[in-house]
Amino acid sequence: MTTSPDSPIDLPRPSSVSVAYWLWMFAAVVLVFSGLLIATTSGDVLRTRLVDLGTNADSIDGLIRLIRGIGIVSLLVGVVVGFLSGAVKAGDARYRRALVTLSGIFAVLQIATVLLGLSPTYLLLVPILLITASVVVYRQAAAPWFSNPQESDDA
Q1: How do the domains of the chain map onto residue ranges?
Q2: Do residues 30 and 130 lie in contact, with contact meaning Cβ atoms separated by under 8 Å?
Q3: Rounded (5°) CA angle 6-8-13
Q4: Crossing angle of helices 125-136/93-115, nearest 10°?
Q5: What is the CB neighbour count within 10 angstroms for residue 80?
Q6: pTM of the model
Q7: Residues 112-127: pLDDT tens digits?
Q8: How far is the CA of 114 from the CAs of 67, 117, 154, in angstroms?
Q9: Rounded to whole angstroms, how far apart are CA atoms 70 and 68?
Q10: Mean of the pLDDT values across residues 127-144?
Q11: Residues 6+ apart with CB under 8 A from 34
C-alpha cells in the first residue's frame, strides 16, 4: 500500500487541529465531571434547593429526575466528545463531521438548560469551547489534514 503525498501521515499536524483537539478535550473533561456531580447529587439537597427556589411541591420529583437525566446526558456526551476528538486529531474527516454536528446540537441544548435554570451557569463555558473547536477545526489550514484520496464523495 502506498500513501499519497497529501496523506495525513506525511503532513505535519496543523496547529488548528491541535487547538481544536485540546478545546474538545477540555470540554469533555468539564462535561464528564459536571455530569458525575449533577447525576450523583443527593436527592435531599436537590429537593431543598428546589423548595428554596419556590418550585411547586408536586413537580419536585419530576424535576429531580430531569436534572439527573441532564447530568447523565452530559456525562455521556463528554465521553463521546473525548473519544471522537482523538479520531479527529488523527485526521479522520468523518469523525470531524460527526463531532462538529454533536458539538453544535449539544451546545444549543446546554444553553437551553442553563437558561431554563436546570444546569449551573458555569456550564455556559462548554458551548463556547465546543463551538470554538468546531470553527477552528474547519480553518483552511486544516483542510489538507482531512483530505483522504480513498474516500469518495459518493459514499
Answers
A1: 15-138
A2: no
A3: 115
A4: 160
A5: 16
A6: 0.82
A7: 999 988 888 999 999 9
A8: 11, 5, 40
A9: 5
A10: 93
A11: 71, 74, 120, 123
Question: Contact, 23 vs 136, CB < 8 A?
Answer: yes
**Residue 102, Cα to own-chain centre: how many angstroms?**
7
CA 108 remoteness from chain centre: 11
Whether the Cβ atoms of residue 105 and residue 77 lie closer than 8 Å to each other: no
CA distance 113 to 124: 10
Which residue carries 499536524 as its cell? 13
Please report, as a single letter, which amino acid is at residue 155.
A
3-state secondary structure of 9: coil
Q: 3-state secondary structure string, 79-96?
A: HHHHHHHHHHHCCCHHHH
Tens of pLDDT, residues 29-79: 999 999 999 889 888 888 888 777 777 778 888 888 888 999 999 999 999
Provide the grid cell at 60. Answer: 419536585
The dihedral built from the CA positions of residue 70, 75, 76 and 81, taken in this order, carries a sign that is: positive
